[in-house]
Amino acid sequence: MTKHSNNIDSQNLKVDVHYLTRVEGHGNIVVDVKESKLTKCEFQVIESPRFFESMLVGRSIWEAQHITSRICGICACGHSLASVKAGEDTLGIKPSEETVMLRKLLLYAEQLDSHILHIYVLVAPDLLGVKSIMPLIKTHKPVIEMALRMKRMSDYAGEVLAGRHIHPISYVIGGLTQLPKKENLEKLYKMMLDSRKDGEETVKIIKTLKFPQFDRPTQYLSLKSEEEYAFYDGDLVVNGSQLTKIRDYRKLLSETVVDYSKAKIARINGKTYAVGALARFNNNFDKLHKKAKDVAKELGLKAPVHNPYLNTAAQLVEWVHCLEESITIMEKILKDGLDEKKIVVSSWPKRSEIGKVKYKPNTGISCVEVPRGSLFHEYTINDTAHITAANCVIPTNQNMGNLEDDMRKIVPELLGKKTQEEITFDLEMLARSYDPCISCATHLLDIKFE
Amino acid sequence: MKKQSKPKVAFFDFTDCEGCQLQIANMGEAFLELAELIDIVSFREIMSEEGQDYDIAVVEGSISTDNDVMRIKKIREKAKILVAFGSCAAIAGVNGIKNRTPLDVAKTRVYGDKADKINTIKAMPLDQVVKVDYYILNCPPYIPEIIAVFKAILMGKPYPRPNYSVCVECKMNENVCRYEKDEECMGPVTRAGCNSWCVNNGNRCYGCRGLLDNPAIEGAKDILLKYGLKIEDILNHFTLYNDPQGEKYDQAFK
């Protein structure tokens, strides 16, 4: 950490945040202004490289979910679902409607879990002027207990549906290895109903917090579907247009390597872009659940929103949407039951089939909306279903260029008005509002786009 | 407990997914109880405060860069007790798969012509670099075991790792054996302590807790070969989490 000056200097600024805290993974913010000229403005990813795409080569497609889930502890369900979808695309397997319904439920649980973690544990301390959630345990105990209760609900959803939330067990290619137990689903349903009032309470709290003013329209990428507010499937859109099939994602986005970082900068139409809650909100507002729309109105959000700090508010709108959608699915499941024959599969081919089946060498691609944005997985397999090449495009990588462009705009706006310490704080908060997941960003997949 | 007597605990992460730290947040009320007994001075994922003074270092992730080696040595110098938290820290975990390919090949696969710029070394568990006092196994860590290890630490007692296989727990849970279902499973050679978490949920055991001290490798190999698995596939099962013992299997599976 550099020593901060408390004087306002309109010509010079040096921000050097080593190990940004309250984000997932290791990142630095480096900004340098000399004599009013912005000479450096970087968000450096410094997490140790993990080599996932290299690790996948030679591994069976049937264990890709198990391995790629471990790219990230927070987005483990998202990676698992992207992985099984890409695996199915590779193998030509179509899951049943019931399976897809259960997958959506798990994906909603992931948004519920991650968004509440981000809102309360990672962002709220900034807005309340403390360094972490720890002092809040004493000063705001009922609120923290409520946050933990909300977190517990979504975490329990992962437990009931997939065996556990971090590195889910039962969601595999083709279906689930086991049906969730009815008594657990009933308990979960009750917890979800109880969460409604916690959600209302959270809206009241977030409404009183002051997000910094800042506006910079950019390109917003997300999935879009005619049927619903898209998380699990759909087509890609940029600011509501440029409709592109998931399969053709390489035609839309390109990534370039930058020297100072171990993650890459992504571009669409030659420009940086944003993914995540705010991008989805801007592209799919009309598909939100009515209650979520009401919350958006209460929070003063009107699509399109161009203030990146408000990503956190958009997460709360999505939280309400996902809770309501989950409750609807749960009611259907509890009423109709689940048909084991349509859902339960074994996680691998039977032992007695191994070595006897020839697979068609093929490449499969998937995209799902995970809490931080559009996540792509792509695998190529040989005739024994072993992976010969793998790629993932991670939300945080896609957001990094956009964050840097935000910083380039905001620094001159703040220069001369705020102290170095205040600007540093604002930049940290800006980076945090993107909810960056740096472990994910450094899974390090090399994608060479033309 | 008096305030002064609370041990200072710092959490650190190395090469990993940070799921282990997140599992602490998932402890819910048990986390609040634990927070009463210890004084958390550093936990970058959730805190901006950073304490330089600590008694217990809880470390997740593998060592995989030169910088990691220096950092963990410094942490070891300061900490009275060092806990390897999760599979990556305890046994290298999935990071170890990287070691199955020569580093140059792995680097080129990922970074292409930028490969030279990447500083990476073999992925290692902590105890290949520093002395480790307690191990919390599993990927992700199993919450009852996290609590049990913290209890042992607070009482100043050792926490011995079980040296029987996952099958023992799996039988007590009355699961149908995966082999009976015409599937494979790493349960017979994997160290227990997870209450057969994955098999309870209809999947197989992947060996995330590491192997027993003396696993019946030959027996496992014979069974798997009998069912037509190729040696490479069997090796893949054994090395998904357990690269540090990989050379032993390379010999056994020749």
Q: Gap between N and C termini of chain B, in Å?
A: 57 Å
Q: Uncertain spans of chain A, ≥5 residues at pLDDT below 50?
A: 1-5, 442-450
Provide the structure class of chain A: alpha+beta
Structural class, from helix and strand content of chain B?
alpha/beta
**Sheet with most strands: strand arrangement of chain A:** 8-7-6-11
Please count the beta strands of chain B (DSSP E, at least 2 residues each).
5
Helical run tally of chain B: 11
**Main β-sheet description of chain B:** 5 strands, parallel
Entry keywords:
heterodimer, A: 450 residues, alpha+beta, 3-stranded antiparallel sheet, 15 helices, 45% helix, 17% strand, disordered N terminus, B: 254 residues, alpha/beta, 5-stranded parallel sheet, 11 helices, 5 strands, 37% helix, 9% strand
What does this structure look like?
- The complex is a heterodimer of chains A (450) and B (254).
- With 450 residues, chain A is of the alpha+beta class.
- Chain A has 15 helices and 14 strands.
- In chain A, a hairpin with a 5-residue loop joins β13 and β14.
- The longest helix of chain A is centred in the N-terminal third of the chain and has 31 residues.
- The N terminus and C terminus of chain A are likely disordered.
- Chain B is an alpha/beta fold and 254 residues long.
- Chain B is built from eleven helices and five strands, in the order βααββαβααβαααααα.
- In chain B, strands 2-1-3-4-5 form a five-stranded parallel sheet.
- Chain B is globular and about 55 Å long.
- The mean pLDDT of chain B is 86.
- At the A-B interface, α1, α4, α5 and α6 of A face α1, α2, α5, α8 and α10 of B.
